[in-house]
Amino acid sequence: QVQLQESGPGLVKPSETLSLTCTVSGGSISTYYWNWIRQPPGKGLEWIGYIYYSGSTNYNPSLKSRVTISVDTSKNQFSLRLSSVTAADTAVYYCARSGLGLLEYWGQGTLVTVSS
Amino acid sequence: QTVVTQEPSLTVSPGGTVTLTCASSTGAVTSGYYPNWFQQKPGQAPRALIYGTSNTYSWTPARFSGSLLGGKAALTLSGVQPEDEAEYYCLLYYGGAQEVFGGGTKLTVL
After folding, report:
1. Mutate to test the interface with A, among B5, B6, B44, B98 (most CBs of A within 10 A)
2. Which position has the higher pLDDT, B57 or B96?
3. pLDDT digits over B24-74, tens only?
4. What is the three-class DSSP state of B54?
5. How far apart are CA A16 and CA A82, in angstroms?
6. What pLDDT does residue B1 have?
7. A65, B12, B71, B87: which could form a disulfide with B18 (CB 3.0–4.6 Å)?
8. CA–CA distance from B79 to each of A58, B17, B51, B82 (Å)?
9. How many CB pairs under 8 A join A and B?
10. Chain A closest CA to B77's CA: distance in Å?
11. Which tens digits make up the pLDDT trace of A40-66?
12. How do residues A64-74 score in pLDDT, each as one tens digit?
């Protein structure tokens, strides 16, 4: 059974860069697409972007200028960097595995608060 | 800006049937949008229920089914159980360019 676990700072200052890592266990990262999704408190889900194990990426156009997703196949991890954060970036951040047209396995999520 | 629209809230009686829908601002939803459905309970991560319009996972209860209905993606719950009370989200794929979630439907079982 594939499991995903997010990790990273729970508090980030405004204008700084949010960095999170997702560790994949129970399966290899060297296939499938690996996604980041977020959910502001009390609101809906927003797809941030994905990376294919080969390194190709696709980002939400509304976040594209601030987002970088990278993969480290040797550690079975992938990462999210979101620059120039504001309070509007406060959310629970989820990592998830997807295939062609399906978003199958999700991490439990981690809350990131942007505040000084 | 592509918008995916769901009913904000629906109420159903235990044992009843309810259909949730998912519409796209770009026009009719087809199988090419690979509609996905997710269930989220308070304090939990979303759980995948349906992919590719109507395909289920091994963990999807048999009372959940997906379809296309009147130009929208649809999720039907037949024989609703109290534990089905949750927020439900659809997801549409737009030609590999982006993936867009609907705003969610809060389903109350009453």
Report:
1. B98
2. B57
3. 999 999 999 999 999 999 999 999 999 999 999 999 999 999 999 999 999
4. coil
5. 9
6. 83
7. B12
8. 39, 6, 21, 10
9. 56
10. 20
11. 999 999 999 999 988 999 999 999 999
12. 999 999 999 99
Q: Which residue has the tokens 């229920």?
A: B49
B32 Cβ partners below 8 Å, 6+ apart? none
State the Cα–Cα distance between residues A68 and B1, nearest whole angstrom.
Answer: 21
- Cβ atoms of A17 and A87 closer than 8 Å: no
In our burial notation (b when 16+ CB lie closer than 10 A, e otherwise), range B39-53 reads bbeeeebbbbbbbbb
User: What is the C-alpha separation between A35 and A53, in angstroms, rounded?
Assistant: 11
Nearest-angstrom CA–CA distance, A15 and A39: 20
